[in-house]
Every structure is written in C-alpha cells, then in structure tokens.
Amino acid sequence: MTKADLVDRIAEGTGLTKLETEAVIDGFMITVREALEADESVELRGFGSFRVKERAARTARNPQTDEPVAVPRHFVPVFKASQEFRRIVNEAHLAAERRARG
User: Fold this and answer.
1) Minimal CA–CA distance to 46: which of 84, 94, 3, 78?
2) pTM of this structure
3) What is the number of structural domains in the chain?
4) What is the pLDDT of residues 40-89, one digit of tens each?
C-alpha cells in the first residue's frame, strides 16, 4: 500500500477530502520524525511504538570485492507492534490460510 492508497482509504472512511487527509498524514509523519530526532518515543496504544535504536559499529564485507568495510555506530528508527496488533494480524493470516485450504 502506498501513501496515495492510504490517503484514498482514510478519506473514504472519514469523509475528509483527499487534501485534508494527506495533510493529516504528512503532519503525523513529520511529528513522529521530529520526536525521534529529539530522542523521544511515540507510543500508540493498541498499535505500537516508534523508537530509536543504536546499532554498534561492526565490520561488514563488500559482496563484489569481498573486502572488509567498516560500518560506524549509527542510530535507526524502529517500530514495534503492540501485542494486540500482532495478535490481530496473526489471526487474520491464519484465517486466510484456512480459507485457502478449503
């Protein structure tokens, strides 16, 4: 699903225009990014949380030349789904598998 698909679905479900919906989605993404930049976490009950995680420095290798490459310590945004969200997704996929098998 793309951002445009998301805008379409939310606009249909809420009665907002596509422009209004896109502005809300853009605002959400900017707010989450700014919070993570400020080392804050964003928690959405029943959905999940966005956090920043530190990755340690390591040595990798270039697959074309097989030479070692130093990868410095860095920070990455991560999303962790809530238990409720994981349960709902799991149950939906299990039900789809059962329907596919007959």
Assistant:
1) 84
2) 0.83
3) 1
4) 999 999 999 999 999 999 999 999 999 999 999 999 999 999 999 999 99
